[in-house]
TrEMBL record:
Highest rank taxon of the organism: Bacteria
Record keyword Kinase present: yes
Signal peptide interval: none
UniProt KW keywords: Kinase, Transferase
UniProt KW Protein transport keyword: no
Protein family membership: Belongs to the ROK (NagC/XylR) family.
Organism field: Ligilactobacillus agilis
GO MF annotation list: kinase activity
SUPFAM superfamilies membership: Actin-like ATPase domain
InterPro entries cross-referenced by the UniProt entry: ATPase_NBD (IPR043129), ROK (IPR000600)
Name under which the protein is recorded: Transcriptional regulator / sugar kinase NagC
Record-linked Pfam families: ROK
Database matches in Gene3D superfamilies: 3.30.420.40
Length: 310
């Protein structure tokens, strides 16, 4: 069965990534194209991908931002024109199995299938990017929730005094999505160090590694503290074995070390917490750029062959 190939498509705010993957998780081909900024050119690009690859595959797996209701995208996150698009309906004439999954949940499924949550019954993936994505695995299965929105970690409240929507921050700055934005952290570090390119993550982490700027160090420690708070909040509700941290900044060892140190500080400075909550393992996610391709396919395999993959 591993000779069966599937088309996996990851719709991102900057690029549409796609690849051919078999049931063993082996990628034989992958590529990307720039994500069009309007609905009609976007659909035309997807239609062309489907036309090119549908005759060669046994199924199609989509991953997209936003809340996904079965195969319909709601809201669309960074791509609001995705709202209401139903890929299964659009490509029903192909008579191929087709699924759609949220990007954070796809990352969690990738880790559960072939990554650092493999064989973990209760775990979670936290993806630190422009906002905070994620997915929660309970009893070996992805938690969807009553309204398909479990794991929308960007909407957890960090500061209840700053939840009002503003012109500069439609979501409000008190939510996790703003407080724990990895892009926001890098911008703040580069502003403090007066670096021209505010989005240059490598320069920002060189400053952190040097440790010479106390303001930069304090900013990073505060960020790690907030991530640790997020993990503890989740842990107090669902009691997980392991959290994996993904997103571009997770490749920096400083990040995982900093989050673990911050969690230990929380854990050991409050006796009631230490006595009540078991400490979960916190480590880096295995997959980065290809996580959503794997996770989208795994969702398709779980849907079409649950007896084999569950």
């Amino acid at each position: 069965m591993t000779n069966h190939k599937y088309l996996s498509i990851d719709i991102g705010g900057t690029n549409i990534k796609y690849g051919l993957i078999n049931q063993a998780g082996q990628i034989s081909f992958k590529a990307k194209l720039a994500t069009p900024s309007e609905k009609e050119p976007f659909l035309a690009a997807i239609d062309q991908l489907i036309a090119d690859y549908a005759p060669k595959v046994s199924g199609i797996a989509f991953c997209a931002p936003g809340k996904i209701e079965k195969s319909t995208i709601r809201f669309g996150g960074a791509l609001p024109f995705l709202d209401g698009i139903d890929f299964a309906q659009r490509y029903r004439h192909l008579a191929l199995p087709l699924t759609v999954i949220n990007d954070g949940k796809a990352a969690a499924l990738a880790e559960s299938w072939l990554g650092n949550l493999k064989d973990i019954k209760n775990g979670a993936a936290i993806i630190l990017g422009t906002g905070v994505g994620g997915g929660i695995i309970i009893n070996g299965q992805l938690l969807a929730g009553s309204h398909f929105q479990a794991g929308e970690l960007s909407y957890m409240i960090m500061d209840p005094t700053q939840t009002k929507s503003t012109e500069d921050s439609p979501m409000g700055t008190g939510f996790t999505g703003g407080t724990l934005s990895a892009v926001g952290l890098i911008k703040k570090i580069n502003e403090l160090t007066k670096h021209d390119d505010l989005l240059d993550g490598l320069v920002a982490f060189k400053e952190l590694e040097a440790g010479a700027n106390q303001q930069v160090t304090a900013l990073f420690e505060e960020y790690c503290h907030h991530v640790a708070c997020l993990i503890m909040n989740i842990q107090s509700v669902v009691d997980l074995e392991k959290f994996v941290i993904g997103g571009g900044i997770s490749a920096q060892p400083l990040v995982i070390n900093g989050i673990n140190q911050a969690y230990d500080d929380l854990y050991h400075t409050n006796e009631a917490v230490a006595l009540t909550l078991c400490r979960p393992q916190i480590t880096v996610a295995k997959f980065n750029n290809d996580a959503n391709l794997y996770g989208a396919l795994y969702q398709l395999l779980l849907t079409t062959a649950p007896e084999k993959f569950n």
